[in-house]
Design a protein that fits this description.
With about 150 residues, this protein is an alpha/beta fold. About 25% of the residues lie in helices and about 30% in strands. The protein is built from four helices and nine strands; from the N terminus they run E-H-E-H-E-E-E-E-H-H-E-E-E. The longest helix is centred in the first third of the chain and has 14 residues. The radius of gyration is 14 Å and the shape is globular. It starts with a strand and ends with a strand. About 35% of the residues are buried. It binds adenosine-5'-triphosphate and magnesium ion.
């Protein structure tokens, strides 16, 4: 486990984008932390680091949203071809996610998946899931513990 403290949302975004750039595909990130801890902010950075061009918002009303990572002027930007963003906040059980076929994404070598409120669906975490635990320390400080 590693720990970082960010002093503002920009630093959290930056942490996410660095993490995104280091992804090779197949990663599953399980994010835990209360309302406003900064999960979506971190994932906006992660998505940018992966090469997602469209804006990543909270998928609360969709539960799951897929972002395609395409090419830039015909050139392939990296090994990751898609970002799957899941928000488990409203889910009652992992069954709801399983019926959406999420397990398929977990094993795709060119997709990166991130789950907000992952502690609500612990049973479906794949073995290779990496945890990101976020905690609000003060108005702008966040503790991020990750594996
Ligand atoms: N260091 C920081 N890192 C991240 N966000 C911060 C930080 N300091 C302040 N903020 C603010 O905290 C809020 C974090 O919101 P965000 O939507 O990312 O949280 P969340 O964990 O996804 O919440 P939810 O559970 O409601 O989805 C934003 O308004 C952001 O500007
Ligand atoms: Mg969020």
């Amino acid at each position: 486990m590693k720990k970082i403290i960010t002093k503002n949302e920009k630093e959290t975004f930056k942490f996410g984008s660095t993490l995104g750039k280091s992804c090779r595909g197949g990663e599953v990130f399980a994010l835990c932390g209360d309302l406003g801890a900064g999960k979506t902010k971190l994932l906006q950075g992660l998505a940018t680091g992966l090469g997602v061009k469209s804006r990543v918002n909270s998928p609360t009303f969709n539960i799951l949203k897929i972002y395609k990572i395409g090419t830039v002027r015909g050139k392939n930007t990296g090994p990751v071809k898609g970002f799957c963003h899941i928000d488990a906040y409203r889910l009652k059980s992992e069954r709801d996610l399983i019926s959406l076929g999420v397990k398929e994404f977990f094993n795709q070598p060119d997709i990166v998946t991130a789950i907000e409120w992952a502690d609500k669906v612990k049973k479906i975490w794949p073995k290779h899931a990496r945890t990101i635990k976020m905690k609000q320390l003060t108005e702008n400080k966040r503790e991020i513990i990750y594996s």
